[in-house]
Design a protein that fits this description.
The chain is mainly β. It has six helices and 84 strands. Among the domains are: 159 residues, Methylamine Dehydrogenase, Chain H (7 Propeller), CATH 2.130.10; 230 residues, 7 Propeller (Methylamine Dehydrogenase, Chain H), CATH 2.130.10.10; 96 residues, DNA polymerase, domain 1, CATH 1.10.150.
Length: 1147
């Protein structure tokens, strides 16, 4: 099975940011680094504007700027650790690579704690591997020459590193722990990493997590330089010197030379200057120094503090709580009290800090924390820049609206709290007005009283037997009396009503089964009418540009009528009487082309309007009759024929100006069931065609390709677009007993509905479709102390209403959630582990059952069973419960007469701690934490007892056991597993960011795919997409950075061509820093130290989709590269484009 990897939602977590300026520009910029992009924004009075975006291949580890040359520096780890020195031109907004520096070979052991890059003026230092650092010196003037060195350090367990101030010292402060766990700080020279007498090695009374350089402004004295080291609720200041900063440098610069001192004097000075203070935050998640007096600090609970530092003569620091923000991963002070907050787990924000912060008075020696009242705040969140759903801890597919289009329910959060989010791709629909009491509608048609008017005045609504007219005025809707617009009959159904352009009269055409009427909208009376020679009118379509209407009759006739102020003039006619099925089901006209659909034969003919009597230019044979056809060019040059079939499928076929079918341009979109209604919405952003029946979709053109976006409209029985007074351009549809006006927003976007879980941090999630409930395992931290308590919460899946919660015992943690449905029994399952001090792994836990109380719909505890080990996974197996407990898999029976859980009735031992279980009809897949995966089978057989002559006959016994089918013995360390739809392909993710697959063949696990994603996949979800021709999504995955991706399958012929395209594009297109695409996607096995195997079995769909965006010249150059045998020809290119279009539409 060949897979195509695609991204539905890009990573939303922000890793790093900085506020800076560039050469030859006076503007201020914000640079943001996410998991896959480097973005440069320019600061504007109204906010920030994106001016440059560059895709990143590799795992970002740091972002800095060199002070003088204004180069940006990005550190990447994987595919190979490297430093990219980048040059940004503000005039052309082009980002180029000035230098690439490889940090260290992959064979070295990665750093355990500190991994990143830091800088001081034109020097930078990076550490990614234990005992190794890379230093780079960039010249301050053009041509900006590079000097780099690979150096070794003795400190292996480095906690944090930074350059000290002033930059001229070229001194690196290193905080580390020794073999006994004690904390130390040492200064080393940047040029050789030798010990420096300026900062001798010193044992610390705490173990800092972070060390930062600080500059303290002193009135009438030299500035003070030092380092601040942060540990939980503690901070330590260590003075490193005095000096003056350059006038144009706010936090970095050169200090004046200091007189030489001997080693003992330096140690004595450092010892005297060391100050330990209490701080109100447990840890520092992000920080930035605003000036020589103020440091902004954000902690892991999302609280922002302003730390005011001074020397008077001893170091003091006063911390003021400013307010709550997203838990920051990065802080960047922009200007004018505006702060950028980037977050791994919350929305990125622009925050305004108020000027009127109370000054702190009184003695604050050795540090003081100033707390504010709960309602007091000194900041305002100006704007939230993104919807961050990272880190996604767990996810599941749900279907709660009957649309047949599953949505993704996911949980995310941090120490400050959590979220339950529901994500679906498509457009959002904002309801503007609802009119109740409009039942049995089949069609609605908007009319303008005056042809040149912008807004519509009437809405003609038709049932199968009657018609009524609604008056639209000033945001109100009223029923028009029958005496007004008497030219439109109220006693029969309406087939078509539309304005028509005529000289000297504001008129509309009105079609019923018996006649075609031209109505004067001002006088309200009929001007003229036309009746078919035989039969009744069955379908009609109007071409406004030529004032021509086509009428189809029940006798197989098709008439073309030119509309004139005096009446109708027949211009042509054609008879389909000779056809076996001659009755027309629907018509469409546009740009001189007529589309005719037939009942019975399921044909669609494309004719030229000027020559109806000639043979059809094109014929389309459909498996089901088209109840509606539509023609639209979406405001572009390419015309599309759109047909809505009775089986609930919408077909889009490109046609030429002569009515000929464009090869390989057919698209199908299933909408559940027919009949389907079609209308066109014209907006400044483009032209959309909306099709709606049981479900709905919007068709549009994006990047010169047909794009499909689902709409949240259900069971539509009439549809139109209207520009109503007081409402504006909107879509109006009839459903059930009401008429709804609304606007479509965010086409083809991921719509995210979020429910805040308060201070609870979610850990695991399950959805019970039968009970319509979510079950969420959460941890709730206790206020102001490190104790915590685990809960299981229950919520309604439509309203998010709280339906109860279950508090676990002290020391008991929730480890898994599952669902159970068998016959009339519906339960929610939970697995727990009891963690006791001194235990290497949980030795006990519980299986818990919950059920719904039928009286109040609340979820309540039913039963539990103590087990010997932590329950890592809990699933249903037939009528029983299957659980991964400790090192094995255990099977339990449920009581028949009362809700009880039996002792284990069968077990299977793995030898390693079980992590997850996937149950399929023909196998059970088990993953463990230390090795890989195993495939087992559950066997239940009856043993027939042979009766003894001297003994009574014994009852037959049932034997329950597990049998091992296959086992992978490699050290894979899977984080998530799933079984694909073929029930033989197993997929797993690794902590190294790899995807691996196996196929079960003849009792063996054969390794198949290997692909690197660069992110930790927390969950695979098997797709519920039904089998269909073309690409099909088989699994959805979610990651720690907020990415939602899919893996789709294509047939072997398409897979071959897409793989060839990927190889050719990889040879022509390099990543930032010259990274090869094949190198980036090759699997990484960092924990083995061996050369990784090549990528196989998975094609990077996000990469090859860029082929559709290339201009013809670039595309031709890529396809024709290489030898004649390697060239991709026109036929193969057409196959590739068709497959890429299908992948894009189905994404």
């Amino acid at each position: 099975m060949h897979l195509i990897s695609l991204t539905s939602h890009s990573p939303s977590a922000v890793l790093h940011s900085l506020a800076c300026s560039f050469r030859e520009s006076d503007e201020r910029y914000l640079v943001v680094l996410t998991a896959d992009k480097l973005q440069i924004h320019i600061l504007k009075p109204q906010g920030i504007d994106l001016v440059c975006e560059q895709e990143i291949w590799g795992q970002p580890r740091g972002l800095i700027q060199l002070e003088t040359s204004k180069h940006l520096v990005v550190a990447l780890d994987i595919p190979q650790a490297r430093i990219l020195v980048l040059d940004f031109d503000p005039r052309s907004t082009v980002l180029t690579v000035h230098h690439t520096s490889i940090i260290s070979p992959l064979a070295h052991r990665p750093s355990v704690n500190f991994s990143g890059v830091f800088a001081s003026d034109q020097s930078l230092c990076a550490s990614f591997y234990s005992g190794h650092v890379k230093t780079v010196e960039v010249g301050s003037k053009a041509p900006y020459e590079i000097k780099e060195s690979d150096l070794r350090v003795h400190e292996l367990a480095i906690q944090s590193m930074c350059y000290t101030l002033p930059p001229s010292d070229k001194l690196v402060a290193i905080v580390y722990t020794d073999a006994t766990g004690r904390g130390w700080v040492i200064g080393r020279t940047a040029d050789g990493m030798g010990p420096s007498p300026m900062l001798p090695e010193k044992e610390l009374e705490m173990i800092p997590d972070l060390v930062i350089p600080v500059r303290i402004d002193n009135t009438d004295e030299d500035d003070t330089y030092g380092v601040l080291m942060f540990a939980p609720y503690k901070a330590m200041f260590l003075k490193t010197g005095n000096g003056h900063m350059e006038a144009n440098q706010s936090t970095k610069g050169k200090g004046k030379p200091r007189p030489s001192r001997n080693k003992s004097e330096v140690k004595a000075d450092i010892q005297a200057s060391m100050v330990t203070i209490d701080v109100p935050y447990r840890d520092v998640a992000a920080w930035t120094q605003v000036d020589g007096k103020h440091i902004l600090v954000g902690d892991s609970l999302g609280r922002l503090y302003l730390a005011t530092v001074s020397m008077g003569p001893q170091f003091t620091m006063v911390c003021v709580l400013l307010g709550d923000i997203s838990v920051p991963s990065t802080l960047s002070y922009l200007s004018n009290n505006i702060l950028y907050v980037g977050s791994l787990s919350g929305p990125s924000q622009l925050v305004r800090i108020f000027d009127e912060i109370e000054s702190t008075e009184g003695s604050v020696s050795r540090g003081k924390k100033k707390q504010l009242d709960d309602e007091d705040t000194h900041l305002e969140v100006v704007v939230e820049l993104n919807k961050n759903i990272a880190p996604i801890m767990d996810a599941t597919l749900i279907e709660i609206d009957g649309s047949g289009q599953p949505r993704i329910a996911l949980i995310s959060g941090d120490e400050s709290g959590g979220w339950l989010s529901v994500v679906h791709k498509g457009a959002s629909f904002r309801e503007l007005a609802i009119l109740d009491g409009c039942g049995s509608l089949e069609n609605v048609f908007p009319l303008k009283k005056y042809f040149d008017e912008q807004t519509h005045s009437y809405l003609v609504a038709s049932t199968t037997t009657s018609t009524y007219i609604l008056s639209l005025a000033d945001s109100s809707v009223s029923l028009l009396p029958q005496g007004e617009l008497s030219g439109i009959s109220r006693n029969e159904t309406t087939i078509l009503a539309s304005n028509v352009a005529l000289q000297g009269v504001d008129a509309a055409i009105y079609v019923t089964p018996k006649k075609v009427v031209l109505v004067d909208l001002i006088a309200g009376r009929a001007i003229s009418s036309w009746k078919p020679p035989k039969g009744d009118n069955t379908a009609a379509a109007l071409d406004t540009s030529s004032s021509t209407v086509c009428i189809a009759t029940s006798e197989g006739g098709l008439f073309s009528l030119n509309i004139q102020p005096a009446g109708f003039v027949k211009t042509s006619e054609v008879s389909f009487k000779s056809k076996p099925h001659s009755q027309v089901s629907s018509l469409a006209i546009s740009s001189g082309i007529v589309a005719v659909a037939f009942w019975g034969s399921n044909e669609i003919l494309v004719l030229l309007l000027s020559e109806l009597n000639k043979a059809a230019q094109s014929t389309i044979q459909e498996p089901s009759a088209a109840s509606a056809v539509h023609l639209s060019n979406f405001g572009e040059s390419q015309m599309y024929l759109i047909a809505a079939r009775l089986d609930g499928v919408v077909v889009a076929q490109a046609i030429t100006s002569k009515g000929e079918l464009v090869p390989n341009s057919r698209r199908t979109v299933p909408l559940g069931a027919g009949p389907i209604h079609i209308t066109t919405m014209t907006e400044p952003s483009g032209v959309r065609v909306i099709a709606a029946g049981k479900y709905a979709t919007a068709l549009s053109i994006a990047n010169k390709r047909l794009s499909v976006s689902s709409l949240p409209l259900l069971d539509v029985c009439a549809l139109a677009t209207v520009n109503a007074p007081g409402i504006g351009y909107s879509t109006v549809y009839a459903s059930a007993n009401r008429l709804v006006f609304g606007q479509i927003e965010q086409l083809n976007m991921l719509n995210i509905s979020k429910y805040h879980l308060g201070s609870d941090t979610p850990l695991c999630l399950a959805h019970h479709a039968g009970l319509s409930k979510y079950a969420i395992g959460c941890v709730r931290p206790k206020s102001d102390v490190l104790e915590e308590r685990h809960f299981i919460r229950f919520h309604d899946d439509s309203t998010f209403k709280d339906l109860g919660q279950h508090k676990l015992k002290y020391s008991e943690i929730v480890t898994s959630i599952g669902v159970y449905t068998h016959e009339r029994n519906s339960y929610i399952l939970a697995g727990t582990a009891i963690v006791n001090p001194g235990e290497n792994e949980p030795l006990s836990g519980r299986i818990i059952l919950f059920a719904q109380d039928d009286e109040n719909m609340m979820i309540k505890f039913q039963a539990s069973q103590d087990v010997e080990g932590g329950v890592s996974s809990i699933k249903q197996l037939g009528a029983r419960i299957l659980a991964g407990i400790g090192h094995g898999v255990y099977l339990y029976d449920l009581g028949k007469d009362e809700v009880t859980i039996s002792d284990p009735v069968a077990r299977w031992e793995r030898g390693y701690i079980v992590q997850d279980i996937i149950v399929r009809p023909n196998m059970i897949v088990v993953s463990d934490r230390l090795r890989s995966i195993s495939v087992i089978r559950f066997i239940e057989r009856t043993q027939i007892s042979e009766p003894d002559e001297d003994m009574e006959a014994e009852e037959d016994s049932t034997i329950l056991q597990f049998e091992t089918i296959a086992m992978d013995m490699r050290a894979v360390w899977p984080t998530s597993i799933e079984v694909l739809s073929d029930n033989k392909t197993i997929i797993a993710s690794q902590t190294d960011g790899n995807i691996l697959t196996w196929e079960l063949e003849d009792g063996n696990l054969e390794s198949r795919a290997a692909f690197h994603t660069g992110e930790v996949i927390h969950k695979f979800i098997a797709s519920t997409t039904k089998s269909a021709a073309g690409p099909r999504t088989v699994v959805i995955f979610v990651t720690n950075t907020g990415r939602i991706g899919t893996l789709s399958t294509v047939d072997d012929a398409d897979a071959l061509q897409l793989t060839r395209l990927e190889m050719k594009m990889g040879a022509a297109i390099k990543g930032l820093g010259g990274i090869e695409h094949a190198e980036w996607r090759a699997p990484k096995l960092l924990h083995t130290g061996t050369k990784p195997p090549p990528r196989r079995g998975v094609t990077d769909g996000d990469f090859i989709k860029k082929f559709l965006e290339l201009n013809p010249g670039e595309a031709k150059k890529i396809l024709s590269a290489g030898s004649a045998a390697e060239t991709i020809g026109p036929a193969e290119e057409a196959q590739i484009r068709r497959c890429l279009d299908a992948i894009s539409m189905g994404q």
